[in-house]
Amino acid sequence: MKIKYILDSSSGLTEEQANAYGWELLPLQANIDEKSYSIGKDLNLQDFSKIWKENPKCIVKTSCSLPGDAQKIIDKYLDEYDKIVIYTISKELSSQYQMLKTIYADNKKIYIIESKKLSYLLIRDILLFQEALNEGQSFDKATKIFNQENAKLLLIPEFNDALVKGGRLTKPAAAMARLFRIVPIIQFKEGSLIKYGLGHVFRKTLIKQALDIVKDYKKITDDDYFLIINADNKNIKEIALEIKNAINFKEIYVIDLSVDITIHTGIGAICLTLENIPASIKDKFFKFATKY
């Protein structure tokens, strides 16, 4: 079976990076001060970081892929491929999945994953899915990969501006947080971003949560890797090395956080997780990661 894989920009991939995997990118949209961008195509993480640093008060919104543009991207593969597999941002965070499901409701060639994931999890799942098919699993059996729960994933913003703009934090609460250096901790669980707890001082919170993730993890194997998903934090090298030494790992990896999520968490945010990456997909999975 000849399959084309299409991931949206919540995967954190740019168009060029998706193409390097042999995949296609479906950009979500960003509107910054009334100018529209296709995320991953004409707006990457570094581009957004530059815009935000020049004007932290810029008005930013995200939205689904434009239906017409999405159809152009998807429909061009209909004749050449037996199946088109589309993986979107979690349906709990966006209407992207539902929009595509509605458009292609009667097209049996197109399989739209009922996503409850985002970021590196989309990449990991597709690599595992491809491997399962190559090993002879049926398409239907292999799709169970998409239903597997991800490991504990925490998001820790460095600044609260984006949380206030998005309504996740009130202005008075943000003012109190700045005064007492309180850090909100958010967990990505079952497809949603939920309140997890509070920390005190950003860097101290990162270290404490990293240590807790390692302590609470099931038995660590050679295929388990500590990942930092980074929203262009200016101190990422120091942070990565500090966490690596604190948890006593030989190596850890840093991956870019997608622009779609960064817009809502703010530049500087850090996500932490300890995830199983089988040796068979390790090189492909870490293709665009930085090792420390």
TrEMBL record:
InterPro entries: DegV, DegV_C, DegV_domain_contain
The entry's keywords: Lipid-binding
Classification via Pfam families: DegV (PF02645)
Name recorded for this polypeptide: DegV family EDD domain-containing protein
Organism: Metamycoplasma faucium
